Amino acid sequence: MKTLTIEKLTKSYAKETVALDEFSLGIDQGGCIGIVGESGSGKSTLARILLGLESFDQGQILFKGLQIPPKKKKDYRDYRRDVQMVFQDATSALNPKLPIWKIILEPLDNFKEVKPSFIKEDGLSRKAVASHLLEMVGLEREFVDRYPYQLSGGQKQRVSIARAISLEPSLLICDEPTASLDVTVQFQILELLKKLQEETNMTILFISHDIRAVTFLCEKIVVLKQGIIVDHFHMKDLYKKNRHLYTKQLIKVASLS
Ligand SMILES: Nc1ncnc2c1ncn2[C@@H]1O[C@H](COP(=O)(O)OP(=O)(O)OP(=O)(O)O)[C@@H](O)[C@H]1O
C-alpha cells in the first residue's frame, strides 16, 4: 500500500483559476519526491490541501489508507502528528517571543503521548530534549536559550526542521524551504534534509520552483504547470530526450543543461 495516494485532485478558486487539475500521485514510504513548477502552478495549493488547511473540489487523498481530511477527531489528530510541514519563511513560522527550546518543543507539548525514539534516557529535562533536536539539525546546544531574532535565516530554518521532525512524522512536506536563503545556505539545508531522510526513512515531499534544489534532493520528480502534471520522471532520466518541453525549459533556465 502507498503511504500517500492522491487521485484526480481538482481545486479551483474561481471558474477561471484551476489551481490543480486532476492531480494524481502515489508515494511510497521513504525517499524524497519533488514537485517543481513556476509561480502559480499550484504547488502551495497542494501543500495546503494535504495539511487540511484548504478544501478541494474533486478527487481523493488517502494517507495510509485513510481518507484525507479525516472525519474522526482522533484520526485527524493522528494525521496532524504524522504529517509535518516546513515553510518557506522561517521567520514568520517561529514565535519571536519564545526561546528556541520552547519553539522546538511546541509539537511535543501538543502531543504529550508521543515518546520519540531519539530520546533514549528517561527523565531528560525539556531543554535537554530540545538540545538533542538542535544537534540533530546541526546546531549547537547553546542555541536553546536564544530567541529567533538572534539566529540567521539558515539557522532559523534548521530550528523549523527540528520542530517538524520532533514528532518523527512519516511525511514531511517542505514548501520552498530554501527559497529565501542564499545559495550556500540553501545547499546546507538540502544536505540536512537528505541526511535526515536517510536516517529516519520519513518521506519528504519537497515543493520548489527551483529544479536545481529538487534534482539535488529528490529521486522522483513531478513537473507541474498550471495545475497539471506535465512530466514525471526518475532523477536519473533528467536529461533524457523524451523530457517534456517545459521540463527542458526549467532545466535551461536553471543553467543545468
Ligand atoms: N486563496 C486564493 N484565492 C484565489 N486564487 C488563489 C488562491 N490561492 C492561490 N490562488 C491561485 O491558484 C493558482 C495556484 O497558486 P499556488 O499558490 O498554489 O501556486 P504556487 O505554484 O505555489 O505559486 P508560488 O510558487 O508563487 O507560491 C494561482 O493562479 C493563484 O493565483
TrEMBL record:
MF-aspect GO terms: ATP binding; ATP hydrolysis activity
Span of domain ABC transporter: 4-251
Superkingdom classification of source: Bacteria
SMART domains with a match to the protein in the record: AAA
CDD domains xrefs: ABC_NikE_OppD_transporters (cd03257)
Keywords per UniProt: ATP-binding, Nucleotide-binding, Transport
Name of the protein this chain belongs to: Dipeptide/oligopeptide/nickel ABC transporter ATP-binding protein
Species for this entry: Natronobacillus azotifigens
